[in-house]
């Protein structure tokens, strides 16, 4: 695992955008695995800025997002579909037909998991998977205790995740209790992984996930087994890692 320490959130976002844009320049028709949450917002802003300056071209890019809440419409401002359009897709020259997000409104969880895995396979797999990490070490929506062998599936969100995500909703009762997520196995099949972490409140989990034992209790710890992972974290997030 390569670790790049960034000064702060802005620097982390710029470094991450640099890595993504290098990937796009090296392989203009690559498949990017994308993530939501507050962490990658600055990265998307930086990519949009470079796009506006003519430095990056998304016309041949395909994307596959990590996850989506179950049971909320795409038009809901809290859906990850809405998030991706708002922060990236509507602001760059990506072909919307080339973007993929699990369908939160598919009532058939087994069928949705299979469909999404087939989408990823048909794209030839993910070239570069962007990840954030939850406070409990979750990646995508793979909560502690999830089997590493799972592919895309439906999950019940942990109470701590519902609590952490309530800031985006009018009340905690509106936070969906379930989501569709790429499984750990799906994530581990990406050729390259770029994981971003920012802020002191994630310092403990960064130390556990990347320097502690590999265990389903800390889902991100499995990334230690991937042969091409880049962690870009700011100084605050790395503050509990001994150097
Ligand atoms: C959500 C998403 C994850 C994300 C995590 C952390 O639960 N499903 O993909 O990494 O939150 O979010 P944040 O970046 O806002 O801390």
Describe the structure.
- With 243 residues, this protein is an alpha/beta fold.
- The protein has one domain: Rossmann fold (3-Layer(aba) Sandwich).
- It has 7 helices and 10 strands.
- Helix 1 crosses helix 2.
- The longest helix has 18 residues, at 9-26.
- It starts with a strand and ends in a 9-residue tail after the last strand.
- The mean pLDDT is 96.
- Bound molecules: 2-amino-2-deoxy-6-O-phosphono-alpha-D-glucopyranose.
- 2-amino-2-deoxy-6-O-phosphono-alpha-D-glucopyranose binds next to helix 5.
- 2-amino-2-deoxy-6-O-phosphono-alpha-D-glucopyranose (GLP) is lined by residues 35-39, 66-67, 132-134, 140-141, 161, 165.
Question: Could you name the key traits of this structure?
Answer:
243 residues; alpha/beta; Rossmann fold; seven-stranded parallel sheet; 7 helices; globular; binds 2-amino-2-deoxy-6-O-phosphono-alpha-D-glucopyranose
The CATH architecture classification is 3-Layer(aba) Sandwich
Number of H- or I-type helical stretches: 7
Physical arrangement of strands within the biggest beta sheet = 1-10-9-6-2-3-5
| Shape verdict | globular
Estimate what percentage of residues fall within beta strands.
15-25%
Helix content: 25-40%
What binds here, in terms of ligands, is: 2-amino-2-deoxy-6-O-phosphono-alpha-D-glucopyranose
Taking all residues together, what is the mean pLDDT? 96
């Amino acid at each position: 695992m390569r670790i790049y320490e960034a000064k702060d959130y802005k620097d982390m976002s710029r470094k991450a955008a640099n890595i993504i844009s290098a990937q796009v320049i090296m392989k203009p028709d690559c498949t990017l695995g994308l993530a939501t949450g507050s962490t990658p917002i600055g990265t998307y802003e930086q990519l949009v800025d470079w796009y506006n300056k003519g430095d990056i071209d998304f016309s041949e890019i395909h994307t596959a997002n990590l996850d989506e809440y179950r049971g909320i419409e795409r038009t809901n401002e809290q859906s990850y579909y809405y998030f991706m359009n708002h922060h990236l897709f509507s602001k760059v020259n990506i072909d919307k037909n080339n973007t993929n997000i699990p369908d939160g409104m598919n009532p058939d969880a087994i069928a949705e998991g299979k469909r999404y895995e087939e989408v990823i396979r048909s794209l030839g797999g993910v070239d570069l998977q962007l990840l954030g990490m939850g406070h409990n070490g979750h990646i995508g929506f793979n909560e502690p205790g999830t089997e590493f062998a799972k592919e895309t599936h439906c999950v019940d969100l942990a109470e701590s995740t519902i609590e952490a995500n309530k800031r985006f909703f009018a009340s905690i009762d509106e936070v969906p209790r379930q989501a569709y997520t790429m499984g750990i196995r799906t994530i581990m099949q990406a050729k390259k992984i770029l994981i971003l972490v920012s802020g002191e409140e994630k310092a403990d989990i960064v130390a556990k996930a990347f320097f502690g034992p590999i265990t389903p209790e800390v889902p991100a710890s499995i990334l230690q087994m991937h042969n091409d992972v880049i962690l870009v974290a700011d100084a605050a997030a790395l503050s509990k890692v001994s150097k």
